[in-house]
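Q: Can I see a sequence and its folded structure?
A: Here is a first one.
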Amino acid sequence: MDVKELLNRYAAGERNFHGIALPKADLQGVHLGGIDFGRADLRGANLAKASMSGANLCKANLQGANLEHANLSEVIFSGADLCEATLTTANLNESDLSGAYLCGADLCDATLHMASLSAANLQRVNLSDAKMSGVRMWKADLRESNLSGADLSDANLSEANLTGANLNATDMSEAFLTGTIMPDGTMHK
């Protein structure tokens, strides 16, 4: 299937594209709300400015994908591979990224209010200036991540690993830090 066929079938009301292979597809600016891209191969795809609110991206491969300025609110990413993906200024409010692999991804200035990133691999992720109040990051791996200027107020970072993370000017007011490994390697009690 190619992009044109996908868009035609979506326009006709089809939403189930589970397991589709569209590596390097150009889907910039398209509206795909509620689409099922579970286990899809979207490596290197251009989804910049796409609207995919309420989509299923469980276990999808989005390595190196461009999701800059995309609307990904309430999207389910559980187990997805977003290694080296660009999600700058993406809207991920209330999205489920539990267990997702985001190693090296760029989430600078992204909006993740009330999102779930529990047990996600966020090593070396750029979350500078991200809006993440109320985010759930229980047991998340944030080693060497850039969280400078991020809003982590009311966040749950219990048992998260922040070893080597940059927390300059990070708002962690009212954050839950029980068992969290802090940037210097000490455990918060």
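Q: Show me another, different protein.
A: A second, unrelated one:
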Amino acid sequence: MTSIFHAADANHLLADLPTAERDAFVAGCETVSLTFGEELYHPTDTVTHAYFPINSFISQIVILHGDSRLEVAMAGHEGMLGISLMLGIEEAPLLAVVQGAGVALRINAASFQRLLAECPVLHQRLKRYLYVVINQLANSAGCIHFHRIEERLARWLLMTQDRAKSDRLKLTHEFLAMMLGVRRAGITQAAIALQTRGLIRYHRGEIIVMDRPGLIEASCTCYTEDCALYARVLTAL
């Protein structure tokens, strides 16, 4: 039980909950290990559990025309997977794939929905998190349409680094091309441009962030705007 209490503190949505709410949540959840590439949900699957990542992170991917894939959201220790349960909807809207292996807290849908009624502080945080996710999805749509691949790649690397808590990221160009919805050649050109500027170094499926401030400057403003939105809406609680 101690390990679950410690894990709960590591997720920003669960940290510092009132004692009664924290105890209620911990009583209803379990720790699970998530492996890279594990598919937690497919579109239209029944959402049986909500996940609160601790040191893992999950990509949410839209699938178009049968095989075309594009990441539109990411959830790590700052968030959760299964937010649709707040709306009473138990259908998964997107493909959910583990991008960063690690541990998460998992709670079944019925227990989670019951806790929403019993835990007003947690409920309020999750409503605010839903607002953040809606805004980030809207911003992502604009980013994908208007911003250059190099800017988008810098943003994506920063988002991944935040959740992985490491400067070393195990990523192939093929994987990045799928996540950003572009051709591999576009990722290669963008990565070369960032490496030439001394911002990253990549070799054999690994990208190392060398200059985070420079990478933030190279990124589109979507990254800093997303961080500011999260801080404004959630950190103040």
